[in-house]
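Q: Could you fold this chain for me?
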Amino acid sequence: MFYGKLAFTNLRKNHRGYLPFLISMLFLVAINTMTQIIVNNDGMRSLPGGGSASAMFGLGHIIIIIFTVIFSFYTNSFLLKQRKKELGLYNILGLGKRELYQLLVWESLFSFLIVIVIGLITGLVLSKLAFLVLHRMIGVGADFVFKIMPESLGFVTMLFAAIFFLLFLINCLQIKRTNPITLLQGGKKGEQEPKARWLLAIIGLVCIVSAYWIAVTIESPLNALNLFFVAVVLVIFGTYFLFTAGSIALLKLLKRNQRFYYKTNHFISVSSMMYRMKQNAAGLASICILSTMVLVTVATTTSLYLGKKDVEESRYSRDIAIKTNIQADQVKKIISKVSAEKQVPIKDQVYLTTTQSIMFSPKADSYKYMDLNGYYSAGSSTAVMMLFMTAQEYEKQTKEKPKLNEDEIYFYPVSGDHKSDQLKFKNQSFKIKKRINEFPGINQQVELTDSFVVVMANQNVIDRCLNSWIPKKTDTKDRLPKYNFLFNIELKGEKKQIEFAQTLRNELQQGLGEGQYSFDDKATFVSENRLITAGFMFLGIIFGATFILATALIIYYKQISEGMDDRERFEILQKVGMGHKEVRKTIRSQVLMVFSFPLLIAVIHLAFAFPIIRKLLVLFGLVNWQLFLLICGIVAIVFAILYFIVYRLTARSYYQLVERKS
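A: Sure. Below is the predicted structure, expressed as structure tokens.
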């Protein structure tokens, strides 16, 4: 038990190094416990849209697991660096490497037990709180209740048992490869002054500029989805290259500036950072990337959650929308029948006859008909959707009688716009006599592609155009009319509205047959969308908290590591006359200089990412970019405040390490 007592004493007395490691592992255990309990909850799948939400939480948990493994190794490397001198001293005093392995076994065992017991308890408490929060956010789900599942706790226990075992093997390997003298000096070993690697700096700059160019020039939301991860990879590599090579070049430029360099606080700060810049740069780049992830994740998920009302109102002009190619009279009868049986009045009815939504490819100043094969080969960003109706139908809906010649049209831009006063198709050209600002049942909104409604003189003109555009041998429904039935229902309560919509859907399926109609209702979408956006928001909170903790711990470990390296250097400076005031001023200058760069670059990354994320949000139906801009600003300010608090705390720890007492 000698090694067990020694291990326990080490954990108790070496709290400066062990406590942040244990806290970070406790937090990771708690987060994994919470996500496991939510992912494995059977009630989640019973909710409207629960299948998608479960898949989303499952993907989020995989990301959390990957981050857990990587960050565990990262924090362990800092802890091992601080303990090398202690382990070397044990080796000098008579403990062989085999005895050191036994000491590490007990330390790993104690650490694991502390982490897993307190972490699981904390995770269960957070899980209960998480279920209360999710219930509040989704507002539905009697089956979605908090349950303690042994398999979830067992998975988390096995995961961290494997992680601690791997950390133990890594630590043993480090001891095996290192002699006692090297261990004693392991905490003092610094980097030689690196050379400015201009090629690497140029590559980093090219990566960053390329990512920014992709973000600000992207136009199609679907292209934004395809290129988003390319931009992310470029930003990550570019950031690491610029911090590694660019920071060295910047420090060398500062060193050449005599007015700046030959001041007490600047001289010590610049020379100290130059000495170990290779390690500094990697840590600062990690802080910058994590800070960017916090800003992007929290801003995006918060915008989706707070903007769900905008999505619902822009997508649905009526409570229920039914579309079919056949048996329009039969659809009317079914609607009337269900309305009478359920005693639910129908209002704001729009019964509209149009063509199908027809795809066109824009070619210079004209539009060419495009079928599905052409759509997939040309790319969805080139497609324009158009809906055609007669002047008679337009009059029925708006009570306005248009006087149109056969070469004249009314034009309603639902999404996007057409700037010219002529609309050209193949060998035909139509003059836009009037631009419509609104139309019953069809809201203007931002969609994945441009979408227009075109009013023509009569059905003969429409038929002639369709026959001219669509190849005769093509088997397509584009020639068939489309009957649209849109209306509101006088029924309060989301649950009752969903039940009415489900009854109507079942009656349509029996009367028309499967695949003969499309059915969409607002209440069902609102219920499912609430769960999806709440899930995104919840994951955003988890990811944000995890990344913030990681950022804070990296800063803390970095400051402690740097403080231990700089302690003897500052002791010498104070012995030769440097006062406490000058020490504090120097430390403040050094810490502020080091840690202001990652935050500044992270905010710049967010600013350039704004256009591409704005396009991605369109895929989820959120087009209110002003809301997204406001939330980005608020998130950046709040994060900067948290970042400043961490900076002040780490500066204090650094000062306590390096300042000479007396």
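A (continued): The first helix runs from residue 2 to 13.
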